[in-house]
Amino acid sequence: MSLTPVQVEDKIRSLVTEITQAQKALAAARDFEVDAEHDYKSAERRAILSDDCPKVRQDGVSAAERDAWVADQVDGMEFAYKIARAKREAAKDHLDAVNTQATLVMALRRSVEQAYAMAGAS
């Protein structure tokens, strides 16, 4: 399929719009990740300071057992944080892919312009 310079310019405009949307999605995903991490860390602190939290003693509960109890208390928050991080990483991957497409289209534009220039010169 051969493209005209106008078609290439249309594709570039489309990609600029897509880049802007991808940047906004990445910013939102970053904000969501920060909020999820804050919620998780806050829940972790609340759990470890809770009266219900097992107290580490030489003749009783080990630090590993206490940590396992805390982890169990905040499991849902940790999962939500990991999901938020994965969504942010996916948004970044999408932005990178769109930027790569834009770079390729810019290179294609140069080739198309050269081809049209050569066709017009002959």
Give an overview in words:
There is one protein chain. By secondary structure, the chain is mainly α. It has one domain (5-121). It has 3 helices and no strands. The chain has helices spanning 5-49, 63-73, 75-121. The chain is rod-shaped, with a radius of gyration of 26 Å. The two termini are 22 Å apart. 10% of the residues are buried.
Overview features:
rod-shaped; 3 helices; mainly alpha; 84% helix; 122 residues; single chain
Distance between the termini: 22 Å
Q: List the total number of helices.
A: 3
| Low-pLDDT segments | none
Please outline the major beta sheet: none
Strand-residue fraction?
under 5%
Mean pLDDT score: 93
Structural class: mainly alpha
Q: Could you tell me the radius of gyration in angstroms?
A: 26 Å
Number of domains: 1
- How many strand units? 0
